[in-house]
Amino acid sequence: MGSVIPSFYSLLMATFLLWTSMAELPDNAPMAALKKELHGVGWIFQGSNYCSWVGVTCNPLNLSVEALELPRHVLKGNISGISELKSIKRLDLSGNLFHGFIPPSLGSLSGLELLDLSGNKFEGLIPSSLGSLGSLKSLNLSNNFLIGGIPNELKNIERLQEFQISGNNLNGSIPEWIGELSGLRVFSAYENHLFGKIPENLGTVSELELLNLHSNRLVGVIPESIFSSGKLQVLVLTLNQLTGSIPESVGKCKSLSSLRIGNNKLVGSVPPSIGNISSLTYFEANNNHLSGELPVEFAQCSNLTLLNLASNGLSGFVPIELGDLKNLQEFIVSDNNLTGEVPRSLLKCRNLSKLDLSNNRFNGSLPQNICSTSRLQFLLLGQNSIGGEIPPVIGDCVRLLELQLGGNYLTGGIPPEIGRIKNLQIALNLSFNHLHGNLPHELGKLDKLVSLDVSNNQLSGIIPFEFKGMLSLIEVNFSNNQLTGSVPIFAPFQKSPPSSFLGNKDLCGDPLITSCTSVSDTANENNHHKSSYKMVLAVIGSGLAVFITVSVVVILFTIRERQEMKAKSSELCDEEIPVASPLVITGNVFVDSLKQAVDFDSVVKATMKDTNKQSNGTFSTAYKAIMPSGLVLSVKKLKSVDRTVVNHRNKMIRELERFGNLIHPNLMRPIGYVIYEDVALLLHPHLVNGTLAQLLHESPKDEYEPDWPRRLSIAISVAEGLAFLHQVAIIHLDISSCNIFLDAHYNALLGEIEISRLLDPLKGTASISAVAGSFGYIPPEYAYTMQVTAPGNVYSFGVVLLEILTTRLPVDEVFGEGVDLVKWVHGAPGRGETPEQIMDARLSTVSFAWRKQMLAMLKVAMLCTDTFPSKRPKMKKVVEMLIEVKQS
Ligand SMILES: *[C@@H]1O[C@H](CO)[C@@H](O)[C@H](O)[C@H]1NC(C)=O
Ligand SMILES: *[C@@H]1O[C@H](CO)[C@@H](O)[C@H](O)[C@H]1NC(C)=O
Ligand SMILES: *[C@@H]1O[C@H](CO)[C@@H](O)[C@H](O)[C@H]1NC(C)=O
Ligand SMILES: *[C@@H]1O[C@H](CO)[C@@H](O)[C@H](O)[C@H]1NC(C)=O
Ligand SMILES: *[C@@H]1O[C@H](CO)[C@@H](O)[C@H](O)[C@H]1NC(C)=O
Ligand SMILES: *[C@@H]1O[C@H](CO)[C@@H](O)[C@H](O)[C@H]1NC(C)=O
Ligand SMILES: *[C@@H]1O[C@H](CO)[C@@H](O)[C@H](O)[C@H]1NC(C)=O
Ligand SMILES: *[C@@H]1O[C@H](CO)[C@@H](O)[C@H](O)[C@H]1NC(C)=O
Ligand SMILES: *[C@@H]1O[C@H](CO)[C@@H](O)[C@H](O)[C@H]1NC(C)=O
Asked: What is a biological process (GO) this protein takes part in (predicted)?
């Protein structure tokens, strides 16, 4: 009762102030100037009282601006005027288009507690004046183009708790004083060019919980001090040049959940104190020079999900006790010197999805329980000393995607049961063993398999006709066996080089030179005539082929030369600063009618100019490229985090060509590619109407015209494209409205479809989180499974439907803390809100028919975004439901 009166009083007071001082609001002048300056489309100004503008928070008593929070509003302009807002405490302009220098005048905002300018295009140095921000607790300058070092003046910000400067071009070393910031909880400076040592005192006085310095040029040791307070939760030092050993004191950090120190030069053994870190979830120390044995103490880390010690010098046995790790999903120790039997206990880890023991000295035989209870998807045991037979129970590994058993001492036959592993798609490799007997025809059921290698064994008999059931096959190797008969007529076989079939006893037919007709020894004259006739044809044919090849090369060179001349002359005319373009290694255009119109060098050059940049996705950056021929292309530059391009170029090119043949009106297929240095560029048609995200969120408000039928038809098109992908067993890695493109007639095409096959996050240094897709679209189960699945795709598509229905972003702080679009929509009934309050009123109020269709689509979207993957409909069903919505 007592509290009612004062609060009523202060409300009255505030109203009174508001009423009296309208004309002379304290920040009127700077806010009016700012409104004029920030010409983005995303900021809504209503009325003259700036306190009611979106993103502005005022002090309730004197109406001065206390917070300006406008993240991701497509804003640009000069922000130096903000330094006039003397009472401001929080300034968040992240994810906009601001460029130029960070205004030094911001340093005069003595009350500022949070400054977030991340995700813009700021360049130049970090202004030293920011050191005057005595109240600052959180400073985020990540993902800009800042250069130079970390200014020493910042040491005066004694209360700094979160300091994030990752993703810039900063150089210099990490200053000592960072270790003296007593409140520091988060220090994130990854992806810069920082060098020197990690300061000896980092962490001694602070409350450090997160330290992320990956992808710099740091040297020296991991200082003990980092672990001294024991509060560290996440430590990422991957991809530096750190030496020395892993400090024993790491065991002090009971709450450390993620420890990632791969790709350095660390030596010594993993300290046994690792077992004291009860909350350890990820341990990743691959590509170092670690030695000694795998500590049995890992078994005490009951939450351990990923253990990666690949490419080190570990020796000894895998401790049986590791079988106690109930949550283990990935166990990767390839390229070490480990020995003993394939650890049977590990196979009892119910959640194990990847077991990689390749390139070690494991011996003994394959266990009988190999897949009794498991969710195993990757069983990689190649290049070891495993003997005995392949147990038929291998057929129980129904979830396997890849089976590598090559380079061992396996004997006996290939069990026909392998044909039951219908999911097998990446590879089946049994090469370099002592296998004999026939090739079981059951393998023909593996219709998703891409690569089959049974070379260098003692297999006999024919290649079964049923192998033509392997519809996805791209790579085959049957060489060096004792196979007989004719190679079945099957495109993947005849497209292979002869070396895939060489070294067999009596194998004949295309692509081998030995023709099969000569097999019949009792053949009559006629037959002889026929075969010699064939020989003559073959000789003429190959001569012709050589001639054609030579001519094509000559023609290509001439064209290239001409294009170069042309490019040079046009450069001179335009008086452009000539950009030294790197040497194109290879390139191809799949669409014949466009071959002449694409110039690879212009493609490369277009990606070197920032002004051509169109969008920045999870896996690629898109540029607009205008060819000398006038053709306009969209060029995607892959972010090759794991150096996929260098290591897997040929495989990648084949995958691309496969996608080039994947024709569906609602899929954006690649029309070609260019490769230079270690960069891969994918060529796509340029679609004039941009992306669905732009249509929904960036259309100027005053030009907006409600068009529900267009949105509905976009939804149906995308659903159809995605359903087709699922039908051919391709999972999309990044469904979002930014990857849905609109052509001149607003037909929708789903893009980024090829990424799933090009970037393999399971290889190299890419973190598991690199596959997660875009924020707000990631299905909740991803946190546990770390696997993108078809139901996961359905979820992401459901988020797109909600975006279409609500015209809201998938994540936005207006929903409240920790609430995204999905939670906000699903929570509506609980808040007593009707669907009308959720859907975009500009559409739903136009006609009864539109409203009805929107309500029906909302139902579909709710089903798609169900928390439980098993409850979500299949894409095919979603298409049916959406077509029903249209007809209703
Ligand atoms: C408004 O009030 C706050 C808190 O009382 C104070 O810090 C600030 O300086 C005042 N601003 C103006 C312009 O009076
Ligand atoms: C922004 O405006 C200030 C003062 O109005 C000026 O000094 C400064 O040069 C401008 N900055 C840019 C990048 O135009
Ligand atoms: C700071 O920036 C990084 C990178 O843009 C982002 O991931 C992080 O969430 C930001 N932190 C805060 C507190 O805004
Ligand atoms: C750091 O980068 C700046 C700007 O790119 C450059 O001028 C400077 O020489 C670099 N310093 C060092 C020590 O490499
Ligand atoms: C930490 O690990 C070491 C080595 O295994 C052990 O001797 C020590 O008792 C452990 N400390 C705690 C607090 O558990
Ligand atoms: C293991 O993870 C669960 C779920 O994240 C958590 O509740 C639990 O406290 C963790 N266990 C330890 C020992 O940290
Ligand atoms: C395996 O993972 C699931 C989540 O996918 C989790 O609920 C379960 O506790 C884990 N452990 C076992 C032994 O199944
Ligand atoms: C592997 O270990 C064996 C004995 O355990 C040793 O003889 C051999 O040199 C080691 N090989 C490597 C490459 O370290
Ligand atoms: C496997 O290797 C270990 C260690 O090198 C050896 O002790 C054991 O006898 C070997 N087992 C077999 C079956 O060869």
From this structure: anatomical structure morphogenesis
Closest CA to ligand 6's atom 8: 279
Backbone angles phi and psi of 411, in degrees to 5: -120, -175
- DSSP conformation class of 578: P
Please give the positions annotated as active site: 734
Give the Å distance between the CA of 271 and the centre of ligand 5.
Answer: 10
Token pair of 658, please? 């496969």
Whether ligand 2 lies within 6 angstroms of the CB of 124 is answered as no
Helix, strand or coil for residue 551?
helix
Nearest CA-CA partner of 405 in 357, 352, 364: 357
Stretch 698-703: mean pLDDT, rounded? Answer: 71
Separation of alpha carbons 475 and 758, rounded Å? 16
Question: Quick one: which ligand is closest to 364's CA?
Answer: 9
Q: Strand, helix or coil at 330?
A: strand
Cβ neighbour number for residue 286 with a 10 Å cutoff: 23
Ligand 2 pocket test, candidate residues 38, 39, 78, most atoms within 8 A of CB: 78
Residues in Cβ contact with 793 at an 8 Å cutoff, skipping those fewer than 6 apart:
722, 726, 731, 732, 735, 875
340 C-alpha vs ligand 7 centroid, how far in Å?
28
Q: Looking at this protein, which amino acid is placed at residue 664?
A: H
Ligand closest to the CA atom of residue 59? 1
337 - beta bridge partners? Answer: 315
Q: Checking phi first, is residue 79 left (phi over 0); if not, alpha (psi -120 to 50) or beta?
A: alpha
CA of 78 to the centre of ligand 2 (A): 6
What integer pLDDT is reported at residue 429 of this predicted model? 97
State whether CATH 3.30.43.10 applies to domain 42-170: no
User: How many angstroms separate the alpha carbon of residue 32 from the centre of ligand 2?
Assistant: 16
Q: Model confidence over 790-814: pLDDT tens digits?
A: 999 999 999 999 999 999 999 887 8
Domain 583-686 falls under CATH 3.30.200.20: yes
Q: How far apart are CA 106 and CA 79, in angstroms?
A: 9
CA-closest residue to ligand 5 atom 1:
273
List of long-range contacts for 50-53, beta carbons under 8 Å, 24+ apart: 50/25, 51/25
- From residue 205, give the alpha-carbon distance in Å to each of 248, 504, 871: 19, 70, 50
Domain covering 368-512 in this structure, CATH number: 3.80.10.10
What is the average per-residue pLDDT within 318-345?
93
Amino acid found at 469: G
Q: CATH 3.40.50.720: does it fit domain 689-888?
A: no
SS3 354: strand
CA of 351 to the centre of ligand 7 (A): 6
Which residue owns the Cα nearest ligand 3 atom 11?
A: 140
**CA–CA distance, 342 with 414 (Å, rounded to integer):** 20
Cβ–ligand 7 distance for 302 under 6 Å, the answer: no
Give CATH 3.80.10.10 domain extents, the chain.
42-170, 368-512
Report the 10 Å Cβ neighbour count for 715.
Answer: 27
From the CB of residue 24, how many other CB atoms can be counted at a distance below 10 Å? 8
**Which residues surround ligand 5 with Cβ inside 6 Å?**
251, 272-273, 275-276, 297
Q: Please count the helices (runs of H) and the strands (runs of E) in the chain.
A: 17, 39
**What is the location of CATH 1.10.510.10 in the chain?**
689-888
Count Cβ neighbours within 10 Å for each residue of 236-271 and write b for 16 or more, e otherwise: bbbbbebeebbbebbbbbeebbbbbbbbbebbebbb
pLDDT, tens only, 825-860: 999 888 888 887 888 888 887 788 888 999 999 999
Q: Taking the CA of residue 622 as centre, how many other CA atoms within 13 Å lie in the half-sphere pointing to its CB?
A: 21
| Angstrom distances, CA of residue 468 to CA of 155, 420, 503, 811 | 69, 16, 22, 47
Nearest-angstrom CA–CA distance, 143 and 165: 7
User: According to CATH, where is 3.30.200.20 located in the chain?
Assistant: 583-686
